[in-house]
Amino acid sequence: MAPPKILVVGETPSLGRAIFDVLDAYGIESRYTIDLAEVGREGLREVSVVVAASNSGYCSTLREQEQGRLNMHPLVVVGSRDPKAVAGPKVFPVGLPIEPVSFVQLIRSLL
């Protein structure tokens, strides 16, 4: 069985688990972590899309994207108030509350 192609990073753990549950409810297999460093480079090779769940003013997963660690992956940033969480070629901000159908459509379009 292939590993999940979606990685949910729960910088805000309760939000991350909620995102994980939404994806699961729509039949989209994903992996959940609270720390991107736990995944490592090998683990990222299997990932197609990273979802950062952070409702704070600073999103560390977004900073990893800026530094090039995630530059080959689309990054969906959910709920962040980080001023750098703006739409770009590989960054897709999603505000709260999420609308599950449109959120899942975005995820599927990025796969």
What class do helices, strands and sheet pairing give?
alpha/beta
- Percentage of residues assigned to helices: 25-40%
The proportion of strand residues reads: 15-25%
Biggest β-sheet description: 5 strands, parallel
Shape: globular
Summarize the helix and strand pattern as letters.
Answer: EHEHEHEEH
What would CATH call the homologous superfamily? Response regulator
Cα distance spanning the termini: 17 Å
CATH hierarchy: architecture: 3-Layer(aba) Sandwich
Description:
There is one protein chain. This protein has a single domain (6-110), classed as Rossmann fold, CATH 3.40.50.2300. With 111 residues, the chain is an alpha/beta fold. 33% of the residues lie in helices and 19% in strands. The chain contains 4 helices and 5 strands. It has helices at residues 13-25, 40-45, 60-66, 100-110; strands spanning 6-9, 30-33, 49-53, 75-78, 91-94.
What distinguishing features does this structure have?
111 residues; alpha/beta; Rossmann fold; five-stranded parallel β-sheet; 4 helices; 5 strands; 33% helix
In terms of topology, how is this protein built?
Elements: E1 6-9, H1 13-25, E2 30-33, H2 40-45, E3 49-53, H3 60-66, E4 75-78, E5 91-94, H4 100-110
Parallel strand pairs: 1-2, 1-3, 3-4, 4-5
Structure summarized in a few sentences:
With 111 residues, the protein is α/β, with parallel strands linked by helices.
